[in-house]
Amino acid sequence: MLSFIGLGLYNERSITLRGRDALESADAAFAEWYTSSLAGTSVDRLEALHGIDIEVRDRAGVEQHPEPILDAAEEGHAAFLTAGDTMISTTHVDLRLRAHERGIDTRVIHGTTAQTAASSLTGLQNYRFGKATTLPFPETHGGVPDSVIDTIKANRDRDLHTLVYLDIDGENERFLTGDRAADLLAEPLGNPLGVVVGQAGSDDPTVRADALSALAGESFGPPLHLLVIPAEPHPLEREALVELAGAPRR
């Protein structure tokens, strides 16, 4: 059996009760932090809370060399852990299909996702979110990729909000921050309203809305950060952004 378990958004206690029970019953546990991470905890704290050793795998260890995970699932019950919801990344769909090819039973135990948290914390209506995009570190892509700008503009043309995931460099423990993302996108997008969400899933998340040029000069605390580029807000959404995120009235 291979259980895909979403750990939620912030720390070792963000997991659901069903996920906790599945993890504590596993014979082996594996995790990856390259698609996202739990900024409010550590592997040691996860292991201590759930009473199990966790082997962290890098991207190659999941995508190219998944045999240790599949072998453990074939021999007993293995847990595969990710932040957020476990099947958001196509990498994990591929791992599940590989397990099925070997006749291994699988199950998915969901966790809270960044997308639902962004909607909940900002007051922006979930059904108005269009295609999401990821903003990488500009030094690794020679600036802001055209695909990021095109996705945001296409959503805005359709009157849809855009959730912008911010890059993570797990090997070097670097996180693209909301202020830097706002600075990178302000000019190519014409300086629209943006919303930075930080520490989603914690007891004291950061939610701040303003023009991107203004957000570029602010600090939003420790990671992880998200950036939302709203379409023209509905009146209720506009009021929520003012009251919940400090957006300027206009």
List the helices and strands and how they pair.
Layout: E1 2-6, H1 17-24, E2 28-31, H2 43-50, E3 54-56, H3 59-63, H4 67-75, E4 78-82, H5 90-101, E5 106-109, H6 114-122, E6 133-135, H7 138-141, H8 146-157, E7 162-166, E8 168-169, E9 174-175, H9 178-189, E10 193-198, E11 206-211, H10 212-215, E12 225-229, H11 235-245
Parallel strand pairs: 1-4, 1-5, 2-3, 2-4, 6-7
Antiparallel strand pairs: 7-12, 8-9, 10-11, 10-12
Task: Give keywords.
12 strands; Cobalt-precorrin-4 Transmethylase, domain 1; 2 domains; five-stranded mixed beta sheet; Methyltransferase, Cobalt-precorrin-4 Transmethylase, Domain 2; 250 residues; alpha/beta; five-stranded parallel beta sheet; elongated; 20% strand
Describe this structure in words.
This protein is an alpha/beta fold and 250 residues long. It has two domains: 2-109, Tetrapyrrole methylase, N-terminal domain (Cobalt-precorrin-4 Transmethylase, domain 1, 3-Layer(aba) Sandwich); 114-245, 2-Layer Sandwich (Methyltransferase, Cobalt-precorrin-4 Transmethylase, Domain 2), CATH 3.30.950. Helix content is 38%, strand content 20%. The chain has eleven helices and twelve strands. It has helices at 17-24, 43-50, 59-63, 67-75, 90-101, 114-122, 138-141, 146-157, 178-189, 212-215, 235-245, and strands spanning 2-6, 28-31, 54-56, 78-82, 106-109, 133-135, 162-166, 168-169, 174-175, 193-198, 206-211, 225-229. It has a five-stranded parallel β-sheet with strand order 3-2-4-1-5, sandwiched between helices. A hairpin with a 7-residue loop joins strand 10 (193-198) and strand 11 (206-211). The longest helix is centred in the middle third of the chain and has 12 residues, at 90-101. The termini are far apart. The mean pLDDT is 94.
